[in-house]
Design a protein that fits this description.
- The chain has 8 helices and 7 strands; from the N terminus they run βαβαβαβαβαβαααβ.
- With 260 residues, it is an alpha/beta fold.
- It has a 7-stranded parallel sheet, with helices on both faces.
- Strand 5, helix 5 and strand 6 form a beta-alpha-beta unit.
- The model has no long low-confidence stretch (mean pLDDT 96).
Length: 260
């Protein structure tokens, strides 16, 4: 199956590094016009744009802090000016925050994770839906995590934000379905990115991590990107309101492989 997204207008938040960058490149390879959102490191965003353009694709970078509704509204207004709207939104921008047990967490740190991961995704989804519902088409894909269902001590804000994003996805899908708009979530497991380098670059940390993954390896950003392309394409035209896990089996309770 040759999946194409020709003439589709896409925006990837947090698209200048890691999983977001891989998704931006994969969408462009499939033929989409790609907006690369960033809040810092504009050089990295421009590098992704340059790579897409070098491969004869179309891309632009857009700066906006997704946690700020006015900034998001301005970004979507810019999309309207450049491409006349949007067909695909990938809510990827997110942070894990500082590790702290709940009773030791600083409220501003906890709040910031929710603002970026959950409110940021809503801000972008709201703007996208304002455009997708009238045109009777579009796809919103939010990147959650296995931690929408797996507890993670020290990261209660992160897990709460991802679990909330999962239910928000289902609710928005229910609201948008009568307008021909699909809303989905993609939940990666352990993926090799700079943000978790401290784990996979440490032999002991990697050994422990692999015990949690039945496929016995860390995933790649390209694997997540390929799945994202499938989900936003017509190949998944009958799929909405669900989280798809791409986790090497991490959510399959690998500790029970040899009995309870």
């Amino acid at each position: 199956m040759n999946i194409r997204l020709d003439k589709q207008r896409a925006l990837v938040t947090g698209g200048n590094s890691g999983i977001g960058a891989a998704i931006a490149l994969a969408l462009a390879e499939a033929g989409a016009k790609v907006g690369v959102n960033y809040v810092s490191h504009p050089d990295l965003a421009q590098d992704i744009v340059n790579r897409i353009q070098a491969a004869h694709g179309e891309a632009r970078s857009f700066r906006a802090d997704v946690s700020q509704p006015d900034a998001v509204a301005d970004m979507f207004a810019s999309l309207d000016e450049v491409w006349g709207g949007i067909d695909i939104l990938v809510n990827n921008a997110g942070i894990d925050g500082r590790r702290a047990l709940a009773w030791e967490a600083a409220f501003p740190d906890w709040k910031r994770v929710i603002e970026v991961n959950l409110l940021g995704a809503f801000n972008c989804a709201q703007q996208a839906l304002k455009r997708m519902a009238p045109q009777k088409s579009g796809v919103i894909l939010s990147i959650t995590s296995v931690h929408e269902i797996i507890a993670w001590s020290g990261y209660s804000a992160y897990t709460a934000s991802k679990a909330g994003l999962s239910m928000m996805t289902r609710t928005l899908a229910q609201e948008a379905a009568p307008y021909g708009v699909r809303v989905l979530a993609l939940a990666p497991g352990a993926i090799k990115t700079p943000i978790n380098q401290a784990v996979w670059s440490d032999p002991q940390g990697l050994k422990d991590l692999l015990t949690k993954i039945p496929l016995n390896r860390i995933g790649t950003t390209e694997e997540i990107a390929r799945m994202a392309v499938v989900l936003v394409s017509d190949a998944a035209s009958y799929v909405t309101g669900r989280t798809i896990f791409a986790d090497g089996g991490m959510t399959d309770y690998p500790g029970f492989a040899h009995g309870g």
